[in-house]
Amino acid sequence: MTQGTAGAVVKTAPAVCIDGVSLTYQERQVIRDFSLTVSGGSSVALMGKSGSGKSSVLSMVLGLLKPDSGEIRVGAIDVIRASQRSLTAMRRTRIGVVFQSGELVEDLTPVENVAVAGMLGGQSRDQATAEAVSWLSKLGVPTDVVRTSDLSGGEQQRVAVARALMGGPSLLIADEPTASLDSDTRDQIADAIFALPAQTGAALIIATHDRDVAARADRTVHLEEGDRS
Ligand SMILES: Nc1ncnc2c1ncn2[C@@H]1O[C@H](COP(=O)(O)OP(=O)(O)OP(=O)(O)O)[C@@H](O)[C@H]1O
């Protein structure tokens, strides 16, 4: 990301480049020759029927799953050939992830749930706590709550968004982040997530079944079903 003279975020080199990727599970090809490039500061909604491979694409970008063929880059990192160590560092420092369920530790405070991501990324406890409080406040989550499980579902999902933002990732990946929410809360979470590319220069890839959520993205990409035989 670079800043223009007026402080506006200028879109630069692709944050993610997926080129001609195919994936087979147990002899069944689920993704065939899929390509997608996403620039910093822009958003893409990944749509497709259940089982079309949306989560698998996200797992491949995270380096958790290797395709049979094709290339994947996150910034300058060759995700397919990178060592496990580099991939772990990439996930901790460059990529923020939000899942459907939030995956928070119920007994920790919201601040602790968020700060832990900063500490894994190399921040001191004090730095991480200060950044966690800042993101939670920006996202309108109370920071004086003792147990994260005491928050509402929408607040918990905002905690998950705050956690994904720790350390200023260049890529944000969201897998059905609004699936379990009522429509008002869904809109609040979508507002928070879709504001990020413009605010921070991060690229956003969001997998969703929700057409209203997808409509907020700069582009929508439909995954075709692979080999169903
Ligand atoms: N570990 C696995 N072993 C075998 N098949 C798998 C595995 N993981 C996923 N699949 C299959 O790969 C296909 C794609 O799954 P994936 O979860 O990526 O789809 P999706 O589009 O995210 O689905 P949904 O919208 O239901 O979340 C599905 O048919 C699924 O059953």
From TrEMBL:
Domain ABC transporter: residue ranges: 16-229
Highest taxon of source: Bacteria
Any matching Pfam family: ABC_tran
Membrane-spanning ranges: none
Classification via Gene3D superfamilies: P-loop containing nucleotide triphosphate hydrolases
Keyword Signal: no
InterPro entries attached to this UniProt entry: AAA+_ATPase, ABC_transporter-like_ATP-bd, ABC_transporter-like_CS, ABC_transpr_LolD-like, MacB-like_ATP-bd, P-loop_NTPase
Name of this chain's protein: Putative ABC transport system ATP-binding protein/lipoprotein-releasing system ATP-binding protein
Origin species: Calidifontibacter indicus
